[in-house]
Design a protein that fits this description.
The chain has about 290 residues and is an alpha/beta fold. The protein contains 12 helices and 7 strands.
């Protein structure tokens, strides 16, 4: 007969982020129920070694795992990460998903960086649209028409960028906006003022981020880094409201931090600090 765990016994840190934390939760629950490993193994019908492997986080038979959970009065739920956050919050727990992802994929020792000559001195500005050249996120309907969820004008800050770049005719632009995934590149470029259109040297549309970067929210940073290294760019700056985790990218830690300007999506490039940073980059690049 299965043991009857205490109905109100709480689980400490109930998120099983990996097989090791799942095994730890199972061991904690077993101890809370006052069952030793020999009795638990007998209840489940396995030897003690198999039960210990589960509690130690080693690979095990899925059917056996669910049998152990059932005997301890535990259930496994599968839900979206947002729903999981809400559920954990409801029972008094919070979770840092970036830490969870790092726990699942701990950093490995990096090999010596491959020699790479960054000899392309063309000043290059990576430019996003949403949260950068306007405030709000774009909605593209079936007809390809674009509106912002804020109701504000499209690319309202583009004239600011025109003014900033006017003294520097050699600066090229690479578009990083997600609009290029839904619309032809030439149409996306056509939304820009003429002064900016003629500067566009390309987009990052064809660079596909790894799934792990998508899950942790650093895919835009990865894509821009790949483009910059692929073109061997030396003088570049990315202005974007989604360039997270810049310190993790590059051949060495923090190598690319100064190349990314993370914007406040409520202000975009209209923010005084952002304008100052762009001006500083332009002056430094042309000195």
């Amino acid at each position: 007969m299965s043991p009857t765990p205490s109905a109100g016994t709480p689980l400490h840190a109930p998120l099983a982020a990996d097989r090791y934390s799942l095994g730890s939760l199972i061991r904690t629950r077993r101890l809370e129920c006052g069952i030793d490993t020999f009795d638990m193994a007998d209840l489940v019908g396995v030897d003690v070694a198999a039960l210990s492997r589960i509690e130690d986080g080693h690979s095990s038979d899925i059917a056996l795992l669910f049998k152990v959970l059932a005997e301890l009065g535990l259930e496994m739920l599968v839900m979206t990460r947002d729903d999981a956050s809400d559920a954990l919050t409801a029972i008094g727990h919070t979770v840092n998903w970036h830490s969870v992802m790092e726990q699942r994929s701990p950093p490995r020792a990096r090999p010596a960086p491959t020699p790479l000559t960054l000899d392309n001195a063309t000043p290059t500005l990576f430019v996003d649209f949403d949260g950068t050249l306007h405030i709000g996120n774009a909605y593209i309907d079936d007809a390809g028409e674009i509106t912002l969820d804020t109701g504000r004008p499209l690319l309202e800050f583009a004239p600011l960028l025109v003014e900033l770049l006017e003294p520097y005719p050699d600066v090229e632009i690479v578009l990083t906006t997600s609009w290029t995934r839904s619309l032809p590149e030439e149409r996306v470029i056509a939304y820009l003022p003429h002064e900016l259109r003629q500067r566009v040297a390309g987009t990052t549309r064809d660079i596909k981020p790894r799934r792990s970067y998508v899950l942790e929210g650093t895919e835009r940073t990865y894509v821009i880094s790949c483009y910059a290294f692929g073109k061997q760019l030396k003088n570049w700056l990315a202005i974007d409201d989604a360039v997270f985790g810049a310190a993790r990218f590059g051949r060495e830690p923090r190598e690319l931090v100064d190349h990314f300007l993370l914007l406040d999506p409520r202000r975009g490039i209209s923010d005084e600090n952002a304008l100052r940073r762009i001006k500083e980059w332009l002056v430094k690049t042309h000195t």
